Automatic annotation (TrEMBL):
Gene3D superfamilies: 2.40.128.520. Residues 1-22 form the signal peptide. The keyword Transit peptide does not apply. Keywords: Signal. Pfam families: DUF2147 (PF09917). PANTHER family: BLL5882 PROTEIN (PTHR36919:SF3), BLR1215 PROTEIN (PTHR36919). This is DUF2147 domain-containing protein. InterPro entries: DUF2147. It comes from Coralloluteibacterium stylophorae. Residues 29-147 form the DUF2147 domain.
Amino acid sequence: MRRAILSLALSSAFLVAGPLLAQEATPVGVWKSIDDSTGEPKALIQISEQDGQLQGRIVKLFRKPGEDPDPVCDECTDQRKGQKIVGMTILTGLQREGEEWTGGMILDPKNGKVYKAKAELEEGGDVLKVRGYLGFSLLGRTQEWQRQPESAADGA
């Protein structure tokens, strides 16, 4: 009798927890962007979801000695011109489409240009490949962002 109750309790727990364990990884979280040319960390970006769309804002910049510790986007041509880069939303409008998130826009604060964007999780959700492009996806570049602990945004 005791064994049957224990077996029933464990089966019930797996039925309840199973769907939670099987949930797919999501880009929501904190990511470290890596500079394509130098391989050095550039920024921490916090991605959140609102109304089924992803958006990402810079929560920290990795600066070298002598660089402006709190730069503004001088090159931006939209409403972000002159705004501080830390706290700026640079990624908007990504929506899930199969295994990737598409239909978004991404700002490169270094040159002020806005590109179409898409993203895809890899390596079990620890790497986010973010592609910015003009026109169609072949004309662009992809960055690998590395997932960081949520607490990384708190210390930013």
